[in-house]
Amino acid sequence: MGDMMKKIVLIAGGVQSKVIIDIIKSSTNYEIVGITDPNPKLDNVLGIPILGDDKVLYELYESEVKNAFICIGALGNSHFRNNIYTKLKDIGYNLPVLIHNSASVSPYATIGEGTCVMPGAVINAGANLGSNCIINTNSVVEHDCIIGDNVQISPSAALAGGVKIGNNSFIGIGSSVIQEIEIGSNVIVGAGAVVIDNVPDNVVAVGVPAKVIKQNYSKIQY
After folding, report:
1. Where in the chain is the domain with CATH 2.160.10.10?
2. Cβ atoms of residues 85 and 72 within 8 Å
């Protein structure tokens, strides 16, 4: 059976890697060969070995490991995640879509490569999700939402129908976005916020209703 499974390597051995390991083991036919991490705190995560830093990615690809997945959260790391995604694609890796078996995903939704849909999440018909996104536990992406690349929808956040979100944005835990709202690129929406007006690029918005409180300069850190 192991010979029939596709081999995959995980990038970064932090806390999010535990969820990715759970999804892969419970919902896919991938065999995890190990994890790369430049600064590992342990020698394994849930029994999956730490193989070394990112230099081993080239060796693994040459040894027939053609699939990879990024296990890094987006808040404060969105452009770092994007850099890793680009590096993996340059090497030649395939980044699959990972969907937990308890998530509800419409067959009429579109999901880009390298995106993870976590336990209990709901993605409804007509939704279009970009690449390298995190759709977190119990979050809701309603019909006809359009989500850019490298976006994180945090646990229990809810997007009503027709919401649009630009690249590299982060929607905080428990937040709500009403129908047809447009949120720009490189935006942080704070935990528990209620978004009832459009949000421009490169800002942080918090509160009920959500208001812009400052610029988001994280995009220039990488």
Report:
1. 98-212
2. no
Catalytic residue among 143, 146, 162, 219: 143
Identify whether the C-beta of residue 111 lies closer than 8 Å to the C-beta of residue 131.
Answer: no
pLDDT band at 54 (very low <50, low <70, confident <90, very high): confident
Give the homologous superfamily in CATH for domain 98-212.
Hexapeptide repeat proteins (2.160.10.10)
Element (H, E) at 44: strand 44-45
Q: What is the pTM of this model?
A: 0.92
Q: Is 143 designated active site?
A: yes
d(CA 114, CA 69): 6
Residues in the chain: 222
Do 96 and 30 touch, CB atoms closer than 8 A? yes
Q: 2-91: what fold?
A: Rossmann fold (3.40.50)
Residue position matching structure tokens 């018909």:
125
According to the model, what pLDDT value does residue 39 have? 83
